[in-house]
Amino acid sequence: MPRLFAALEVPHDAALSLSLLRGGLPGARFIEVEDYHITLRFFGDMNNEMADELVHALDHIERKPFNLRLKGIDVFGSKTPHSIYASVEPCEELLFLQSDIDRIAKRLGLKSDKGKYIPHVTVARLKQVKLDDLLTYLSSHGHFETGYFPVNRFVLMSSHESIGGGPYVIEDKWALKIK
């Protein structure tokens, strides 16, 4: 059964900027550059029939292209930090696209994501990181940002049930078009 999620790809220039965040934090497992992405909606494990229904439903999304940029870094896990991420600067078009995909998932009866949607690119997963080291890392990289980049499509990706899930495979893609 494939484990699927909808995502935006991170273009080469932004991925190169993100790669400069790699290293310098003992206990962090940094994400491979080719695995950077912005998750729109995690769908989970599903059989091929449900995956086909999902693909068919995603075919009907119509949204226009938009621009994004990454700005700042932060951590998930307030009491026990478990991952470092690059924030996506707020963007209404991104939220509309994510909301369309989320509505489709709910209509198909797929399990809801936990919590509020926070667009981001995971940079590293943390295990037994010292708080002082983490704070030093965050303060030295806190002014991270990329230039704006165009978002012209979204993709359906599959992942493996492993630590971190990668490598990821693009299973299908949909162009964003001006209505």
3D structure, described in words:
By secondary structure, this protein is α+β, with helices and mostly antiparallel strands. The protein has one domain: Alpha-Beta Complex (Cyclic Phosphodiesterase, Chain: A). 26% of the residues lie in helices and 33% in strands. It is built from four helices and ten strands, in the order βαββαβββαβαβββ. It has helices at 12-19, 48-58, 92-107, 131-141, and strands at residues 3-9, 28-30, 37-45, 66-68, 70-76, 83-88, 120-126, 149-151, 153-159, 169-175. The strands form three sheets. Strands 3-1-9-10 form a four-stranded antiparallel sheet, with helices on one face. Strand 5 and strand 6 (83-88) form a beta hairpin. The longest helix has 16 residues, at 92-107. Its EC number is 3.1.4.58. The active site is at residues 37, 120.
Number of DSSP helices? 4
- Cα end-to-end separation: 35 Å
Instruction: Please name the CATH architecture.
Output: Alpha-Beta Complex
State the strand order across the main sheet: 3-1-9-10
The tally of strands reads 10
Secondary-structure element order, N to C: EHEEHEEEHEHEEE
- The tally of domains stands at 1
Radius of gyration, CA atoms, in whole angstroms:
17 Å
| Helical fraction | 25-40%
Q: Uncertain spans, ≥5 residues at pLDDT below 50?
A: none
Q: What is the CATH topology descriptor?
A: Cyclic Phosphodiesterase, Chain: A
**CATH classification class:** Alpha Beta
Q: Can you say what the CATH homologous superfamily is?
A: Cyclic phosphodiesterase
Strand content of the residues, in percent?
25-35%
| Biggest sheet features | 4 strands, antiparallel
Net shape: globular
